[in-house]
Amino acid sequence: MKKVLFFVGLFLTLAANSGYAQKYALIDMEYILKRIPSYESANKQIESASKQWQDEIDAKTKEVEAMYKKYQADLPTLKGTNKTIRENEIVAKENEIKALNNKYFGQNGELVKRREAAIKPIQDSIYNAIKELSAANGYKIVLDRASASAVIFASPDIDISDEILAKLGY
After folding, report:
1. Taking a C-beta distance cutoff of 8 angstroms, is the pair 137, 107 a contact?
2. What does pTM read for this prediction?
3. Which of 125, 155, 161 is closest to 142 using CA atoms?
4. Number of domains into which the chain is organized
5. Which residues form the domain of 58?
6. What values do phi and psi take at 154, rounded to 5?
7. Fewer C-beta neighbours within 10 Å, C or N terminus of the chain?
8. 10, part of any domain
9. Which residues touch 85 (CB under 8 Å, ≥6 apart)?
10. What is the pLDDT of residue 58?
11. Average pLDDT of the chain?
12. Taking residues 58-78, what's their average pLDDT?
């Protein structure tokens, strides 16, 4: 009798747990983004602007270095206020460079704003496609293989990256 009750309990436990089985899928965001031409174009524009800004900052840095070398060379002949004026000019230029660097590359800088304006709509369309496919196929979890460092192995059968690209028209 105990054996029968044990097997009935085991069967009910297994039946209850199978009702909680969840479907899941994987995507590879890097794979998807590389196949979207507008993403590549936006990235190139952002890189170009970034290089231009960095070149501007580098030029100003060279100016400051030249000012400092000239100051060092003239130091023995500089007196009181002239010395202070030159030091203040150098410090002002250095502060200008820091402000420019923050303006372009800071936390709320132009680079962040441009990246958000250009790439966020693409990421939103990918997210919406994932959401629609998940709802249609009953996926409870969709993991990004590119950013999930804990995924050691995943079967290619559950990768829906190509389905996402097809849904987006690529």
Report:
1. no
2. 0.68
3. 161
4. 1
5. 18-168
6. -145, 135
7. N
8. no
9. none
10. 97
11. 86
12. 93
